[in-house]
């Protein structure tokens, strides 16, 4: 699919998708004869991972690292004895990202709660002024 369809599906701007290409996070799988970027479902899935990480404050390097780890995990079949250790190390890195995401989500919940309290205080002030 072309970048416009990818933009609509991921709710990312064309500029953002191009930026992720420039930084090496998501490279289009192909180009049309006319030079248009062409993306696969796998490319879209990668963009969705990035889109979900961004509001949690993960850096581009962290995004790149997680995508590399998941690519390596996905590329493996049934692991041999030697590969099991590497697989477990990769899974441990994914677990670390999951824990970091959970921590960041909790921080966002606290911020949201404070914002809601602030809005309620303002509403009360407006209502009080009307009385």
Automatic annotation (TrEMBL):
The UniProt keywords, alphabetically, are:
DNA-binding
In terms of domain of life, where is this protein from?
Bacteria
Membrane-spanning ranges: none
Q: Give yes or no: UniProt keyword Lipid biosynthesis.
A: no
User: Boundaries of each HTH merR-type domain copy?
Assistant: 1-69
Q: Does the keyword Cytoplasm apply?
A: no
This chain's protein is named: MerR family transcriptional regulator
For this protein's source organism, the top of the classification is: Bacteria, Bacillati, Actinomycetota, Actinomycetes, Kitasatosporales
